[in-house]
Amino acid sequence: MRGCRITSRRKGLLRGLLRDKSGVTAVEFALLAPVFFAMLASLFEVGLLLTRMAMVDHAVNVVSKQVYTGEVSKGVAAGTITQSDLEAAVCDVTSTVIPNCQSEITVELTEITSLSSLPSDDAACKDATLELNPSVTFNPGVGNSIVFMRVCLTVDLLTPGIGFGLKLPQTDTGRFELISSAAFLNEPF
Predict the structure, then answer these.
(1) Count of CB atoms within 10 A of residue 186's CB?
(2) Is the dihedral of CA 44, 56, 107, 100 positive or negative?
(3) Residue pair 159/43 in contact by the 8 Å Cβ criterion
(4) How far apart are CA 108 and CA 105, in angstroms?
(5) Beta bridge partners of 153
(6) Extents of the domains making up the chain
């Protein structure tokens, strides 16, 4: 008889637990909160990446104008400009949204003499984690020459496995590349 009472008590407790609705909201929150917070972080990151990409595009437009008008080489000795000068000019424009810009940006200039001289390979991007600078073409051209400018910026993502990060090209170390380019005709200077 004693065994029957225990099982009936257990059944009564089980029925009471199944009928009890307290804590249901906490369980639902525990199940949905990680998904919600991942989406929120992804939305924040997409906004930050789009802002960075817009700033890189704007910097390419500003600096390419300085190159094709000859303005950027006026302050440089003997009228020559270096790759680090252009990287600094791009970073001056983007410094508000891109920390450590100088160590994560690569500027490439290629003079286009014919359609066969267009760069056919992917952009070479500097990766600050490797401390290596990629070998890129840097030829700002002369007056009346066509020049192709390409800027590559490497960034880290908060949520690389979801959303916008899945569509970006990656370096060998898992960092992501933001690439902007422009082609222009140098003015006679």
Answers:
(1) 18
(2) negative
(3) no
(4) 10
(5) 105, 178
(6) 2-185
**What residue has token string 């939305």?**
43
Helix/strand/coil percent split, the chain, to 5:
50, 15, 35
Alpha-carbon gap, residue 31 to 54, rounded angstroms: 36
Structure tokens at 54: 């817009």
The average confidence (pLDDT) of the chain is 78
Is residue 143's pLDDT more than 90? Answer: no
Burial 4-20 (b: 16+ CB within 10 A, else e): eeeeeeeeeeeeeeeee
Look-up: residue for tokens 């190159």?
67
- CB-side neighbour CA atoms (13 Å) of 10: 6
Report whether 49 contacts 178 (CB < 8 A): yes
Name beta bridge partners: 184.
147
Q: How far apart are CA 135 and CA 11, in angstroms?
A: 75
| Total residues belonging to the chain | 189
Q: What are 64-85's pLDDT values in tens digits?
A: 888 888 776 665 544 567 788 8
Q: Residue 133 in contact with residue 104, Cβ under 8 Å? A: no
Spell out the residues 6+ positions from residue 43 whose beta carbon is closer than 8 angstroms to its own. 163
With a cut of 60, say whether residue 1 has pLDDT above it.
Answer: no
Tell me the whole-structure pTM to 2 decimals: 0.73
